[in-house]
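Contributing new records

If you add data, match the layout below exactly. Sequence lines come first and carry their own label; structure lines follow with theirs. Keep one chain per record. Anything else will be rejected by the validation script.
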Amino acid sequence: MRKLKIAVQKSGRLHDDSMKILKEVGISIDNGRDQLKASAKNFPLEVFYLRNGDIPQYLVDGVVDAAIIGENILIENGNNISIVEKLGFSSCRVSVAIPKSETYSGIQDLNGKRIATSYPNTVTTFLKNNNLEAQLHIINGSVEIAPNIGLADAIVDIVSSGSTLFKNNLQEVEVLLQSEAVLAVSPKIHEEELDVLNKLQFRLQSVLKARKSRYVLLNAPNEKLEKIIQILPGVKSPTVLPLAESGWSSLHSVIDKNDFWEIIDELKIAGAEGILVCPIENMVL
């Protein structure tokens, strides 16, 4: 079987999160220090460590078959590149920020302004969609200093926590797009590599579903089972097993992590006892 060539960012948070999820899906990668590529020991996969901004062109040219990349980079530079899976990590947003000393009443305030950015295509689309005109200064690097040195009136850059904006006396005023890590595929991928990609995607989906879920075990008197079962959503329906103590049963189910506390409160009110909640490594449905 031919190896799937996949690109990941060579350093930074996205790199770390990408390597973490590959490990979670059972892929062991022998990556030595400062390597540009590395092969998996137990899966037909070869990882290329590339600069994030270069990855879209590698995908377009078919140099790599797939990539774990920020969605914002694909929107900026990734024409004809398909996203096959959103991965739920390395979340950020591309936003407009202005000096804290300036007031902001709406997007019309940006008309005629000087905007510094590393995302000219994204900004140009935003301006066009809102019938705005602005002078763009394209900067690769520390965009946030542009207003402080008089180069621009506003910036458009990625924002995660907002701490960088705060340190540079900037305020976020508009969100152009929300972004997260995605699995993207080259338009030139061959059928054999596509088969490997599908196997990888299946593994990723099982891990992503598990991250969003929790396994719940509880005990309940039999006369309260019907009410408790109505509370537990489960994958299909809860598993019910009799306990050694007569009149009691154990229920096993899966709940959404985001609804965890609300469901636990309902279960306690309904009569559930001895509630245990466990993380799930994988979910194969």
